[in-house]
Amino acid sequence: MFASLLTVLFDGVAFGMILFLISVGLSITMGVMRVVNLAHCGFAMIGGYLTYALIAVAGLPFAAAVPLAVLGTMAIGAVLERTVYSWVYAQSELGQVLMTIGLTFVMIASANAFFGSSIQNIPVPGALRGTTQIGSFGLPVYRLFLIVVSAACGVAIWLALEKTEAGAKLRAAVDNARMAGCIGINVKAMFAVTFAIGCGFAGLGGALGSDIFPLEPFYALHYLVLVLIVVSVGGLGSIKGTLLASLLLGMVDTLGRYYLPSGGGIVIYLATLMLLLIRPHGLFGRPA
């Protein structure tokens, strides 16, 4: 019983860490850049499909395909940021919602046209298959790999935002874009780079998490609600909050589906409701 509980909790942590990778870019975009981007999960889908194409079509190894897919996702995000999103920035919140959800449908149609409607599986290298023994417990190697990679990314994002000159410039540009421009900060370039990096992390989550979030054309809509829940519960712009919310909700959802198979899917929504009633601005969010 105890061993099975630990296994379920481990799966919940892996689920939560993939949620974190996908969600953290949206948290930064909405909380730091003040942009409602409902197409964010589409970039996770792009990262997954690029990885699949590079492995299945181009024949590249997993270790080369994933970084190239992340770079490709960042490049697509940068192009869209300078074209479509340059219009989105100037819109009201409702306009941003309508334009980005429209972009999501364009992404879905494109994925369906290029890759078909069936689920695509990204092959995992042999070194990441099987289980490893930690004490008396056997843990899946690949899910352990997901946790380590996601944790490293979280630390890197926090250090970049809080401890570097670039992070200070970004926060200054968000707080007062006009004044930041007066002291020589290129606000447009700063936002473009930040947006592209957020897309890259989403793409990494889509590339690594296909065994948890199956890769299919409606990916961008299927997991949008989960990502929005994580960002809302964690608090907009809070890396720490996004990580904690991802882990908490990942474990709650996994435990609910395991122990309440007939109605476990609703547990995460009940947990979200209770958390937001207690903390309306999220775990680490601040009032606007």
3D architecture notes:
- α1 packs antiparallel against α9 and α1 (2-31) runs antiparallel to α12 (239-259).
- The protein is mostly helical and 288 residues long.
- 43% of the residues are buried.
- The N and C termini lie far apart (46 Å).
- Strands 1-2 form a two-stranded antiparallel sheet.
- The mean pLDDT is 86.
- The protein is built from 13 helices and two strands, in the order αααααββαααααααα.
- The radius of gyration is 19 Å and the shape is globular.
- Tell me the distance between the termini: 46 Å
Counting DSSP E segments of at least 2 residues, the number of strands comes to 2
Multimeric status of the protein: single chain
Radius of gyration: 19 Å
Relative helix content: over 70%
By secondary-structure content and strand pairing, the structural class works out as mainly alpha
Strand/helix succession = HHHHHEEHHHHHHHH
Mean pLDDT: 86
Spatial ordering of strands, largest sheet: 1-2
Strand content: under 5%
Shape: globular
User: How is the main sheet built?
Assistant: 2 strands, antiparallel
